Every structure is written in structure tokens, then in C-alpha cells.
Amino acid sequence: MKAFIQKILNSKFSRDTIWLILAQLVVLVVGFLLNFGIEGHYGLDQLGYFTQSTSFYLIFSNLFSLGLNNTTIKRVSEFASNREKQFRIFSQNLMLSLGISVMLSLFVMTLLMIFPKLFSSEEVVALLKIQLIGVPFFCANKQFAALYSGQRRQRTFAIQRLIRWTSIGVLLLIAILIEYPVWYVILAFVVVEIGVFLYNVVRNVSSMRFNWVSEELKANLSFGIKSYIAEILAVFNSNMDVILLGYLLDPKEMGIYSFMIFFIKALYIFPGIIMQNMSPVISVLWESKQIQELQRKVSLVSRVNMIVAFLQFVGVIVVYYLIVTYFKDSMIGSTQFFIIAAIGAFIFSLVSWSGSMLVMSGKLKVNFQRTLLVLIISTINILVFGYYFGLLGAAIAVGLNGVFNFIIMGLLIRKEMGIKVIL
Fold it and tell me: Per-domain residue ranges for the chain?
């Protein structure tokens, strides 16, 4: 056993994974406290508004980044032996991302003031106005995170997440204890994002380069734009349920769904960690045509993920049942809805870790087609089932979407790359 543990600790991939798991556990705990605290202190209605505004925030953050974070990960990982070029690529993408996100955030802020009725409620608009202040900083921090990932500095990537979510947790606790209104919780996100940005700048000031090369800039934008639409579709798909259901469900039902979907998304924690760690590895092995080695690593990761995903599935069902039964009387009766959604999400979690494989292998057109098809099917399911069956329909839609995602991703990766992600 001692030798086995030592072998794990000697592996960079294993050490990085441990750091990423630690960071993700903090995200999970703080996320739970956010949902539990907002619902308990401010009410189900406010939890629904909070979740909707945060979904818009995530969509705008990805919309304004132009896919440049994918460019940074891929191109930095490909030039592992050329530090100067890595820093130049990163600096170009950072400045572009920051400048574009500032301009677009101001545009959306103006739009909110002129057409507030575009969104599901005035409460969502009020919260989103605050969150938009943090969007440029969030976009910039995504570039720093992409640099860490591309250089396989996953420990630094994890530390950034630890700083962000630990700080949010502390500020949330202060807001609840002092009984500040819910928009103070939103303001905490902005303050923390600015703090993380300053931390990243100080840590990486020596990595900044301003001797830009036009050919590199064109290459960065070209890859970013090609992967951009698919990434936007994926983000819309990830948040579309919350946005659409905000128009279909009443505020209380929306609050229950928001609480449910937090635990559903917990099923993607470990697969997300694997994807974060595997992305630069996939890029390098595919670029160097080491297909057999890539299949070997994918097979190993798939087996480990399958075991962990099943344990997560059982764990979230037990935890949700205990919380609803003993602590949340307002949600009694929602457990069966949760199980329906969780089954589909568990099935997708078996392959969701491979979500970056098509992008990292340069199969951008196929990835775009995949995400577009998934978005169309998911939107139809949410609208139809949510409209006719309410909260139950929303749970059915989540379950069906998970199964469809599982099928389409496994088939396309096998067809386009010759790699089996499910053994």
C-alpha cells in the first residue's frame, strides 16, 4: 500500500488531479452554502433569481471571451519548449479578451437600461447589472487559468480557484450574519473576481509580453473564432434550462429547480477535473500522432471515471434525500424529480470528461455540429416538457438531455478520432 501511494504521489498527473479535486471540493462546499444560505435566509424566490442572473453572467462571460481561452490552452501546450512564444501568445489573448469584454459589458449594461423587459423579471435585471461589472475581470482570469492549464501548472490553477471560492464563502457568511440584502452576495462575486485578477497580475507580471507578432495574433484569433461558436453553444446548453424555465415555472418552482440542479451538476465534478488535466495531454499526443498512447491514457481515465462517477451518483442522491427530508420542508416531494434528472446526468458523466477532445484535436467543425445539435434537442425538451409538466417536466428534460449527450459524444469521438471513450 505504501509503495502504491508513493507511486501515485510521484506521478505529476496524479498530483495535479489531487490539487484539482481539493479546489473542486471547496467549490462544491461553497456552492452548497450559497444555495442553502440563499434559500434559507432570503427564500426560494431569491434563489431562483440568483441562479438565473448567474446563468446570464456565465453566458456573457463566455460570449465575450471569443474562444481565446481555448486558443491559449492549445497553443501554449504545443509550444512547451518555447517559453517566450508561450508568454507572447498568452499576453496577446489576455489583452484582446480584456478589451473586448469591457466594451461588450458596457453595451449589455446599456441594453439592460433601455430594454429591461427582455429578461424574465426586474429582480434578475437588477442582479445582472451588478454582475456585469465583474465580467471583464472574469474573462481575464480565464486567460490566466488557460495559461496555467496549457503549461500543465494545475496546482496554480487550483490555487486560483481556492482563492476565488474561499473568499466568496467568507463574504457570503458575512452578508448573511449582518443580514445584508441578496444583491450584496452578487457584489461579493465582483469584488472577489477583481481580487483574483490582481493576484494573477502580480504573480505573472514577468510573463507579460508586448512585442506582438501579427501572424501569431491572426493564428490565435483564427483558432479562437473557430472554436468560439461551439463553446458558446455549449455554455448556452449548460445554462439554457435555467433561463428558459425562468419564464415557464413560478418563482417557488424555479427556486426548487435551482437547488436540484446544483446537486445534479455535482455529478460532473470529477469528469470536469479529468478534462481540465487531460486537455493539454490530448493536444500534445494528437499533434504528435501518438494515437495508441492517447487511447491507452483515455482507457485508463475512462475506467477510473466510471467508478468515481457511480460513487458520486449514489452520494448525491443520498445527500439530497437527507437534506430535503430533515432540513428543507419546502422541498419535500422533489426527491423523485431529482432522481429522474440524476439518472440522465450520471449517464452523461461517464463521457463528459472527454468534452474537450474534439477541440484539442482540431475537429472544430464537428464539435460545432455536435454542440448545435445538442442545444437544439435540449431546448426542445426543456420547452415541451417544462411547459406541459412543470417541475416534473424539467426533471425529465434534464434526464433525456443527459442520455442524448452521452450517445452523441461517444459516437462522434469514435468516428472522428478513432478513440473509444467508453470501454
Answer: 2-417
